[in-house]
């Protein structure tokens, strides 16, 4: 049952966020009278606010809270599992404990500390992912080499879009970055094994 935790956690989290988006009352920064959640105009953070952008009570809030809660736990479990596949003990510990730390930080994204926690969560999450990617690049997992680099480029582009205040593009790249990260977690969890990295070590 334990091997299904990550897949189950990601599925539950995505389902909860989908419901949150479905029941969101409406409003965007451009159009306060827009109906529902616009995945190309609204930010995920809009789902956490007490009041929707159209002024109505935000009925998506509870669903979004539970969505980020399950996602944070899933990330921690994933990083612990992934650390067990890494042959270098020091690197494995960094991934494990930094990954565990992502859980409370990511969960706090849904609070008034959103901006601070989001920055910390991204720092912890992507530091772990870069560390993992370094080891992936030394294996024969060619698809993962390419996909891991693509995910990193998407993340850095999202940072660039945010820093350049491109508010029209940011909601879209935010969703692309989130979904590509979720796919990366799933693929790393279920399509890599300890032996992939053990072979790397034996070939040194």
Structure characterization notes:
- The chain is mainly α.
- 67% of the residues lie in helices and 0% in strands.
- It contains seven helices and no strands.
- Helix 1 packs antiparallel against helix 2, helix 3 runs antiparallel to helix 4 and helix 4 runs antiparallel to helix 5.
- The protein is elongated.
- The two termini are 35 Å apart.
- The relative contact order is 0.12.
Quickly describe the structure.
This protein is mostly helical and 204 residues long. The protein contains seven helices and no strands. The chain has one domain (2-197).
Give structural attributes.
204 residues, elongated, 7 helices, 0% strand, mainly alpha
- Protein structure class: mainly alpha
The residue-averaged pLDDT reads 94
What's the end-to-end separation, in Å? 35 Å
How many runs of DSSP E, i.e. beta strands?
0
Order of helical and strand elements: HHHHHHH
Helix content class:
55-70%
Characterize the main sheet. Answer: none
**Number of helical regions:** 7
| Share of residues in strands | under 5%
Radius of gyration: 18 Å
How many domains is the backbone divided into?
A: 1
| Unreliable stretches covering 5 or more consecutive residues | none
Shape: elongated
What would you call the quaternary organization? single chain
């Amino acid at each position: 049952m334990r091997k299904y935790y990550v897949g189950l956690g990601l599925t539950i989290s995505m389902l909860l966020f989908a419901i949150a988006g479905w029941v969101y009352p409406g409003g965007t920064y451009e159009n306060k009278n827009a109906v529902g959640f616009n995945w190309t105009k609204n930010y995920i953070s809009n789902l956490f606010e007490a009041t929707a952008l159209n002024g109505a009570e935000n009925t998506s809030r509870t669903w979004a809270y539970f969505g980020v809660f399950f996602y944070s736990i899933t990330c921690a479990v994933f990083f612990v599992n992934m650390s067990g596949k890494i042959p270098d003990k020091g690197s494995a510990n960094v991934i494990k404990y930094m990954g565990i730390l992502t859980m409370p930080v990511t969960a706090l994204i849904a609070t008034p500390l959103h901006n601070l926690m989001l920055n910390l969560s991204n720092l912890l999450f992507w530091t772990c992912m870069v560390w993992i990617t370094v080891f992936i690049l030394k294996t024969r997992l060619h698809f993962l080499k390419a996909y891991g680099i693509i995910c990193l480029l998407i993340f850095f582009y999202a940072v660039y879009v945010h820093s350049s205040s491109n508010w029209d593009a940011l909601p879209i790249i935010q969703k692309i970055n989130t979904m590509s990260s979720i796919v990366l977690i799933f693929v790393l969890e279920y399509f890599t094994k300890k032996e992939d990295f053990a072979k790397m070590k034996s070939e040194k």
